[in-house]
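U., I forgot to send this yesterday:
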Amino acid sequence: MAHPLQKIPAIAWEAAAKIAVHLVLLVFGLGAIAKLVPYQRSQLQKLHALEAEVAQLEARVKELQREQERDRQPQARRRIAQEEANLIGANQRRIIWVQPNTSKQEPD
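Result:
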């Protein structure tokens, strides 16, 4: 009588070996994907944060460019001197706003 393992043809052994190898490769592939997905998500979060920061910086650059253009105008020298030195023109008066005392003290 022949042994039961000898009845299985060689082609079946070869197919079983291929399936086993493919299963091992599949497990390693799934493991690699499981590690890459969180990394990819964190990189996307960093990218979104950087894009938001770039947008803020672009807005700041535009604001500074507008300010620079405004300061390059001929009449800007006087205005800049007044702002920087806290000076006023000869034909101007200084106005100082004070807040009224809102607490009323009652006499004794």
